[in-house]
Amino acid sequence: MSPHAREHRPTAPARHAPPRAAPSRAAPERHADGPAGGSRRLAGLGALLLTFTALPAAVLVVPDAAFHVVPAAASALELDDAEIAGLLRATGYSLPALLIAAPLAAAAARRFPAWAVLLTGLAVLLAGLGTARFAHSVPLVAMVRAAQGAGAGIVLPASLVLVWERGSRVLAAAWAGALAGTLILAMPLALNAVPMPAEGAAVPDWRVALAPVPWAAAAAAVAAPAYPLLRGRGPWSLPAARHAERGQLLLPFVPAAGFAFLAVVAADDWSPGARVVVAGLALPALLGLALAGGRDATAGSPFGCAIVMIAVGLLCHPVAGPLAGLASVTAQAREDAAGVPLLPFAVAAAAALAGALASTRRGARRAVPAGYCLMTAAVLLGLAVAPHDRWALLLPLVPLGAGAGLALAASLRDAGVGAALFGLSLCFPALLTGQLLVLSLQASRLERLRPVTETRQATALLDAYHVWLLIAAAAAVLLAAATARVGARRAGARYATRTGKAAAGPRAG
Fold first, then answer.
1. Mind giving me the DSSP string for 436-490?
2. Beta-carbon-side half-sphere exposure of residue 40 (alpha carbons within 13 Å)
3. pLDDT of residue 20
4. DSSP state, 208?
5. C-alpha to C-alpha distance for 181 and 400, rounded to whole angstroms
6. Which residues contact 282 (CB under 8 A, 6 or more apart)?
7. How far is the C-alpha of 125 from the C-alpha of 30, rounded, in Å?
8. 20 to 30 A from 7, CA-CA: which of 21, 84, 124, 447?
């Protein structure tokens, strides 16, 4: 129909028009034909480009592959044995910096244009990546890695808000799948970019370990300026955040900052047993924070997305990352030049995206428990896998990715942007918790190892990893039960509201 025909179409009187429901930002977007539909598709394409460039660029600063180049770095920086611990602590500053920046950036993305916040984060991230080659001292290494983490912590919430502005269930699911998949794939990519050198071989430049995967940030730097052109002038902004919402988004800041500080201090001066205690106390604290925040209308969601975010952070990278490290150690012991096999981890990342997209075609009430079952099964299957068998790695990794993507995307269904951002602020503290647990368990086994040989080291690392998998499986069951309780409480509240209205009957007048 031509525009002129639409202009002369008679309209019904306003009193006969049926009332329209207020649009939900979590509902799937229905594209219209014509220019409006085309602008929506272009805006969705822009959000999708940022999802697959900016989000991976942020997550890929989390892995720390510096232990592969410690001898070369110590020689170049003229460090003695006592100073090497300071170097390793400095290279691990990216994750604590991300923890601190994420809640602040979440509040900023709801106060200012999310695209401007994203550009700010990308600028900080690119500065940290670009100056890595000029880090000629331990303090400079710490500054570079902290800048990378801070930039990543700014980019992640901004990318989520930009996706949420589209009001599309499919785009939200793609964002969830990309997050879960990149968490699984991050460490194998870093280890392949910084392979463990053969004995006696020279390392070309040890500083490559400070920015092992810079291409994702470069791609995001290209995609971000193109976003306003694709976005157009449509009404894409979300309703302004209220004071209560900004307060809830800042709620994780103090606990996250405190935990980041403790993790940095514990990594240097505390025994492995003390670090295990810190991590063991952090997990129930995060769960309590998620449950407390979930009672608020701003940070709560019908399917417990904050708790699912904790589960994804705790299980994806801390399970897949050490498995990649074990594969690297095994490959070195077997003198296998291929290093860490990327294919199983890439398939798991694809499974995470597929699981997330599949959640849009089934009810969230069943999809979230199904995702938890897959993640728990994957963790238990990891007990039977040999790290040197690249095809056997598919056995735990594929259900881990599929379950994480399915549960996370389904939990975001019908959640507000405040609830999604609140959960994201808890995801990476959970990741740090899992990482601290598994690394402390492995350090404890290595301390008691006598005599020290490569074979015995690999066996000790694998035994500690199995202990971690048992702890992770128990944590997954606990988080699944907490998520189910939140869903049941929300369903009960909705049922009580409906029955109360029915009992009250129609109002007179």
1. HHHHHHHHHHHHT-SS--HHHHHHHHHHHHHHHHHHHHHHHHHHHHHHHHHHHHH
2. 14
3. 38
4. G
5. 10
6. 259, 429, 432, 433, 436
7. 35
8. 21
